[in-house]
Write a structure and sequence with these properties.
Strand order of the largest sheet: 1-32-31-30
Structural class: mainly beta
Strand content: over 45%
Number of helices: 2
Low-confidence stretches: none
CATH superfamily: YVTN repeat-like/Quinoprotein amine dehydrogenase
Distance between the termini: 36 Å
Helix content: under 10%
Number of strands: 32
Largest sheet: 4 strands, antiparallel
Radius of gyration: 21 Å
Shape: globular
Mean pLDDT: 91
Number of domains: 1
């Protein structure tokens, strides 16, 4: 199926899009490389749009507030009106932000062009009123920043590697260091780390999966894990067992999507340096369900019913489960639809026995 023919909504950010966030009520927020942020309702109507100082690298929601990292700045924005409650300047680029019940925690990093490396990084604890409570400076860059129950976990690069755990107030309560390889990426539920040596590990450094090259992207949902390495290989594991592998261009986005025909979907965005692509696969079999070519994808966001992507060309594209199913079935040959219907009826008859 042509994925472009099944979109529920396409909107234009009017600049290269850098991040997208699907909320639980199906509304959509997107941020751009030049600092624009736009908010659309679940029906696709524009609620508000604002300009911020610089590129949006991370968006997150807590209650009725939006928190964004914009260039050097951390911002708090009223979700209803789009008014900026406050903005503070961090040291170096503001990379990621998460929100606990007690404060806002953000990471920043200083990059040296001459040395082609990060010189210094920091994790900031900020009150809901915009007051900096504490700053933890370090040589290692926090490549990932994730909420984990009541704590915040930062996955670290060289020289110490490992991770740092902060409590809800932003105080460091535990640190694991001495890993021989840096943390590159992480997944949320459960919390897993992808590392430069191609391994996927948990917080105890138990190796759950190994790939040939550095892990580029991770997505976990329950017992299902999607992992991509720098070679363009994507592996799907279920209960730590490899289900299928696919190869191709570099993977720039990877997520578990909504269910389709009784199985979860895997959304894989790739980039070959000139053309981007998105492929939707059946998580159980690896079979392709839909695909499209186009702009490079910079971010993917999902909830139970929808999938959204942000592209280099500024398009914000959203797919909705019911419409996706309907379009998919319309494109299936009649005998394939009948076969699927007969299979479902057979399952129902078996349940009645």
């Amino acid at each position: 199926m042509d994925l472009t023919q099944s979109t529920w909504m396409v909107r234009d950010l009017e600049q290269a899009a850098s991040d997208v966030l699907l909320l639980e009520d199906d509304s959509v927020i997107a941020g751009g490389w030049d600092g624009a942020i736009k908010y659309w309702s679940a029906e696709g109507d524009t609620i508000w749009g604002i300009e911020t100082p610089n590129r949006i690298s991370c968006l997150t929601i807590e209650a009725d507030k939006l928190y964004a990292t914009s260039g050097l700045h951390l911002l708090k924005i009223d979700l209803t009106t789009g008014n900026i409650d406050w903005q503070i300047q961090l040291e170096g680029s503001a990379d990621a932000v998460v929100v606990t019940k007690k404060c806002v925690i953000a990471s920043s990093s200083v990059y040296d062009i001459e040395h082609n490396d990060f010189l210094e990084s920091a994790i900031w604890s900020v009150s809901f009123e915009g007051e900096v409570l504490e700053t933890h400076r370090m040589d290692e860059r926090p490549w990932t920043l994730q909420l984990s129950e009541l704590n915040v976990i930062a996955g670290l690069g060289r020289p110490k590697s490992g991770w740092i755990k902060l409590d809800g107030k932003g105080d460091v309560i535990e640190q694991k260091e001495g890993w021989n390889t840096p943390t590159i990426c992480s997944s949320k539920k459960p919390l897993l780390f992808g590392r430069a040596d191609g391994s996927v590990v948990n917080m105890d450094e138990n190796v759950l999966h190994e790939m040939k090259e550095s892990i580029a992207v991770l997505s976990s949902r329950g017992k299902s894990l999607l992992a991509a390495d720098d070679s363009g290989r994507v592996d799907l594991l279920s209960s730590d067992e490899l289900v299928w592998s696919k190869t191709g261009d570099a993977v720039v986005g990877l997520e578990h999507g909504f269910n389709h025909d009784g199985d979860a979907t895997a959304w894989i965005a790739r980039w070959n340096g000139a053309v981007g692509s998105v492929c939707v696969r059946n998580s159980s079999t690896g079979d392709e369900i839909a695909s499209m070519d186009g702009e490079r994808v910079h971010a993917i966001s999902v909830n139970e019913r929808r999938v959204g992507i942000a592209t280099e060309g500024g398009q914000i594209m959203v797919w909705e489960q019911t419409l996706f199913d309907r379009r998919s079935n319309q494109e299936k040959p009649a005998e394939e639809v009948d076969e699927h219907r007969n299979s479902m009826l057979a399952k129902l008859r078996a349940l009645r026995k």
